[in-house]
Each structure stands twice: as C-alpha cells, then as structure tokens.
Amino acid sequence: MSHQPSYSRVFVAFARNSLVRDMTFQSNFIIEAISSASWMLMNLGFYLLIFRYTNEIGHATGWGQYQFFVFLATTLFINSIVQTFFMPNCEEISEQIRTGRLDFALVKPIDTQFLVSLQKVDWSSLVNFAFGLALLSFSLWKLTQDAIDPLVISPLQVVLYPLYVACGVAILYSLMIALSATSIWLGRNQSLYDFWFYITNFSRYPMEIYDGNVAGKALRAAFTFVVPILVVVNVPARMMAWPMSDQGWLLVVVGLVATVVSLAGSRWVFVKALESYRSASS
Q: Rounded to 5 degrees, what are φ and ψ at 64?
C-alpha cells in the first residue's frame, strides 16, 4: 500500500532544518540580517532624498511619497518571500544537474519540482519582510490621515492585497524555476542570478514611468502581457494605495491570468526539461 507524502510536513521539516543550520552559525546569520536591513535603509534614504525635490514619481501619476512607500513595502514583501524560500534553491539547480545530485531528488517519492524548490530556507531574508510591514503600516496611516483626500481602506482591499502579493510571488517563482530548468538543456546556467536581477529591475518602479514615448509604451506592454514583471508589484500596490478604478480592476484580472499562465508555463518547462535529463553518471 503506497502512502502519499504530506507536503506540509515535508516543508516544515525543511524549514526547521534550515533554521537549525542558520542558528548553528549565528554570527553569519546576524551579519546577513544586518546587511539586508542596511541595504533597505539606504534605499529608503535615497527615496526620501528624492521626495525632498518632488511631490510624486512622474508627472500627474498619483504616486506621491506615501503611495510610493506602499509600493516599496509591497516590493519588499514579494522579494523577501522569493529570496527566503526560492532563490537559495533555484541557484543550486544548475550545480545539482552538473554533479548528478539531481538523481537523488528524482528517486524520492515526492514531486521533484517541490523538492528542488523548497529544500532550503534563508531565514535572514525575512528581515526585509518585517521592514516592509513597518513601512506599509506607517505609510497607510499617513494616507488615511491626509487632511485633503484621506484614503479609506475597504475590507475588499484588505482581503485582495495579500492574495495579489502571493500572485506576485508566484509569477517571480515561475520565471525563476523556468530559468533554472534550462540548465538541463544548456549544461550549465551560472548567469541565472544576473539575468534575474536585470529582468526584475523592471518591477521595482510604477508602470507609469514607461509612458510618454513609443519605446516606453512598448516596454510597458511587453512587461505587462508577455513577461508580466510589471504586474508583480503594481497590482497589489495600486490595490492598497489607491481607490480601485476601472483600469485598476483590469489590472486585477490581468494579474490573476498572468499568475495562472506563469505557473502552468513554468511547470511545462520544468517537466519537459526533466524529460531531457540524463544522469551525470550515465
């Protein structure tokens, strides 16, 4: 009689083992946490400096200081989750393929993609999540206290915001696992992190900055509908920072469709890549 593994119990075991490993080297853990927090403080200082000279990011975009800080906090949430749970594992897939260690994952009675995606957890990266939570709380408080046009947060916004943060995580994970799986065809793909950094730079700013000329509009369309990087942060950030408009609801639909298509597409790439895999010992 076969027994299906409990994926939740397996993940909890992975997370616990990673925490034990991190606590074994506490000094390294503390240094990594401080480095992450310092990097974020420097970024926040940079944006505070920018808002000393302007009231909003882009002309008539609506992204004022605290609206943009909601955007920044959303970026922190999504990136910290991806860096905590997926980045350490996807970075190692190329080496697992090269050395043949992927063989051991394939013979386990559990889904291979789940195993190679979640076997390590980088707990120090959650520092940015805590930083983002503080920044979001402060920014929303400032927006709701605005004397001219106070933000009114509806229950629907509170429900949809974490859902679309999860959608953003899913889209970035899909891109990452698909890139990692190409190592089976390419033999070695050490440029994953570089390409990841370049492509995700597009998600760090509001999509309105690409308006104004043909090239900018082409980039906005490409990174919204072809490679939906702009959907990742823009949808949940807009949902929380502004009252929802007709265009906002259109982005909500686009974000949901992009998530489903990204997950399905990355799964297809991963499975097809595994069909081409040959053991390093064969």
A: -75, -175
Sign, CA torsion 89/95/97/101:
negative
Residue 193 forms part of a structural domain: yes
Amino acid in position 237? A
The total number of structural domains that make up the chain = 1
116 closest CA partner among 281, 282, 271, 278 = 271
Confirm if 86 and 117 have CB atoms less than 8 A apart: yes
Distance CA 99, CA 27 (A): 30
Owning domain of residue 107: 7-275
User: Within the chain, which residues score under 50 in pLDDT?
Assistant: 1
In sequence order, which ranges of the chain are alpha helices (DSSP H)?
Answer: 7-24, 26-50, 65-85, 87-99, 102-106, 112-118, 127-144, 155-181, 183-186, 192-200, 214-221, 229-241, 246-275
Contact (CB, 8 A) for 86 and 116: no
Question: In sequence order, what are the residues at sequence separation of 6 or more whose Cβ sits closer than 8 angstroms to the Cβ of residue 122?
Answer: 18, 83, 84, 85, 87, 88
Nearest alpha-carbon partner for 62 in 233, 223, 241: 241
For the chain, state the CA radius of gyration.
Answer: 20
In a domain, 281, yes or no: no
